[in-house]
UniProtKB/TrEMBL annotation:
SUPFAM superfamilies xrefs: Roadblock/LC7 domain
Pfam families, per database record: Robl_LC7
Superkingdom classification of source: Bacteria
Coiled-coil regions listed: none
PANTHER family: SERINE PROTEASE INHIBITOR RV3364C
InterPro entries for this protein: Mycobact_SerProt_Inhib_Rv3364c, Roadblock/LAMTOR2_dom
Protein name per Swiss-Prot or TrEMBL: Roadblock/LC7 domain-containing protein
Native source organism of the sequence: Streptomyces chumphonensis
Lineage of source species: Bacteria, Bacillati, Actinomycetota, Actinomycetes, Kitasatosporales
Domain Roadblock/LAMTOR2: residue ranges: 12-112
Positions of transmembrane segments: none
Amino acid sequence: MNGTIARLPDLGWMLRPLTDIPGVRHAVVLSEDGLHLGHASAEGLSGTVSRLGRDEAESLAAACAAMTMTSRSTATLLFGPGTGVRQLMLESEHGFVLFTAAGVGAHLGVATDLGADVGLVAQQMQLLVAKIGAHLSTQPRDAVSPSR
């Protein structure tokens, strides 16, 4: 029996309200285990990564998943089992990356430059998740048994 891999629909179109915020460079939606579900970049960007291509978006999705898993372990260590992580922020010399849970089994990541209003970006991320969280949710994948 041969299996097929279905391509997930690209949810990048949902991210345009975020990439329209001044200072936001890129946004990505990913499954809890790091699969890229969609991405968008702001218009008219310049610099090292002026447009997020599929390869960069997949790498960002994997990095986001790794960071959320690490933060979940840290939260469990500090606050006990079952502690969820709602939001993360990473600050670099060039900007910020914010991560938030975005429905069941999904996360949202947004990269900004240093001039962005991070509070506004975080608020808009939460509003977007509340508005379209059902579209951002992913179902767990079924276990695959080896064919013989």
